[in-house]
Amino acid sequence: MADRPYPGVLLDLLRAAGDRVVFEEPDRVTTGAQLLALTGRIGGGLARAGIKPGDGVALAVGVTAEALATVLAAHAAGARVTGIRPGLPGRHLAHVLGQGDAAVIVDAGRAASVPAVPHLRTVASLRDGPDEEPVPLARPDDIARVIHTSGSTGLPKGALQTYAALAAGWAPHPERWPLALRRLAPRLGRHLVFGTLASQVMFEYGTMALAAGGTLVAAAPDLPGAIIRHRATSTVITVPKLRAVVAAARAARAGPATLRALMVSGSPLDPALLAEALDVLGPVVFHGYGQTEAGMISMAAPEEMADPRVRASVGRPPAENTVEIRDAAGHPVPPGDIGEVFVRTPVQACGYLGDPAESAAVFTDGWVRTRDLGRVDPDGYLHLAGRTRDVIIVNANVQYAVPIERVLAAHPSVAEACVVGVPSAATGEAVHAYVVPAAGDLDLALLRGLVRAELGADAVPDRITVIDRVPLTPAGKPDRDALRRWT
């Protein structure tokens, strides 16, 4: 099985599932055998449309059996597959659609959101042919996926992942699951999916659920309502959505009864929120760190998080991954020191589409330069300190945004904190903190004192601004550029 071209292992999972329900929608269920047949018919439609190995195929699909079959069929065809995320700003959408794909495929739920472009086809037009056995045609060195970054610093960059990298992935291979994922797998019985199955994260956890014998359950992303309605046991969740689930559970004095696993994705999770989530929801939160360019880098399971030092980390990298912390000159730093995180993973991308200069800057000598700052503690847990561009130089001393945010957010009066650097005639740069109150009035002098005691005088916010909410990028991450524009 390991030697078969990707996605042979996924097709084998469907064959093995047979009459077991693998996909559930509000109005129907789909078995493994039915999904395999649907993949074959859509694959035949792609072949009749002239799609061959190496051709680009952009997918604007939702969370239906046809959507999953279309993703599988496109990979079986050996195409270069680009997933189009719902809700892309117009400029980002035009950029993604302008990358020379041989076909743009939409399903009924997404058709209205995609403008008329050449080679536009519908899933319905592909699926109505004769039954065919899906046969993987991928070549290992061909590009399998173009995974776009959030575009928080400009237009989204398209990270290129080969079929060899996809075949090296952990998701459909129980024998490759590291400890945290082995603890996660039994909890994926009814795994909630939403948004698009062409998403890197949604697809990876979805295929892991199938490998664990679970069922994918299609839903709207109205958490926690969807978890309750569909009796879901697990789902992927962003930090803002986790806040909403925790608040709802606290108000109801109980979390969703069936919930067993929440995989937090998209942005770092504040230890104070993580502690509250574990307290209110129970041991269900899996917290980790990954990047578009490298896949999953590290993860911590709930069983590890009784230790507050682990809650402050983003977990431990599995043995297959290598993490190195380097200084500004590219040299490894002493153990425990903060530097830039460089990683090597079996599934890492090999460059950016149409951007050789940025490719050379990020993909260096087999390593991925994450542009995140971090350190590794004596137990091997990785701790993040922010992005390299989130360094604030105060009186010629380096301050990191994330530790300041964590001190502020740890106080019960603060629901959320976000820190940026601003120019200062007195100190070169100064810390400006934006805080969202949890309840009541904030004692700003007290908050400054907490930062001073924990991190020193130069880390103390020169200004603290109270806001109703932290602005988010389209990918759901804190929008620091928007905050800088407010200063």
Automatic annotation (TrEMBL):
InterPro entries: AMP-bd_C, AMP-bd_C_sf, AMP-binding_CS, AMP-dep_synth/lig_dom, ANL_N_sf, ATP-dep_AMP-bd_enzyme. Residues 18-353 form the AMP-dependent synthetase/ligase domain. PROSITE patterns: AMP_BINDING. Transmembrane segments: none annotated. Keywords: Ligase. Residues 404-477 form the AMP-binding enzyme C-terminal domain. SUPFAM superfamilies: Acetyl-CoA synthetase-like. It holds the Pfam family AMP-binding_C. One of its GO terms (molecular function) is acid-thiol ligase activity. PANTHER family: LONG-CHAIN-FATTY-ACID--COA LIGASE (PTHR43767), NONRIBOSOMAL PEPTIDE SYNTHASE PES1 (EUROFUNG)-RELATED (PTHR43767:SF1). This is Acyl-CoA synthetase (AMP-forming)/AMP-acid ligase II.
